[in-house]
Specification:
Elements lengths: L3 H8 L17 E6 L7 E6 L4 E2 L5 H7 L11
Antiparallel strand pairs: 1-2, 2-3
Length: about 80
């Protein structure tokens, strides 16, 4: 995927296939902000070389990685 529109379309596709993590992705990761222009933006990591998100893929994963337990926020 080379555009934001392609990535967004893939994320919301109910039939999407998630490929295995590229072996070298974590060795080439750098800091990124996921959806920087949106209110739900959060910090993560990604490999530009592999075009792969290596860190948290959503805000719940980002909170869990930071040590926050978000399981009881909505009374779950």
């Amino acid at each position: 995927m080379s555009t934001h529109e392609e990535a967004k379309s893939w994320i919301f596709d109910t039939n999407r296939v998630v490929p295995a993590d590229p072996e070298s992705a974590e060795y080439t990761e750098e800091a990124v902000v996921i959806d920087p222009d949106e209110p739900w933006a959060f910090s993560s990591r990604a490999s530009r070389e592999c075009m792969w998100i290596t860190g948290p893929r959503n805000s719940d994963e980002a909170l869990a990685e930071a040590g926050w337990d978000s399981g009881d926020i909505y009374g779950a």
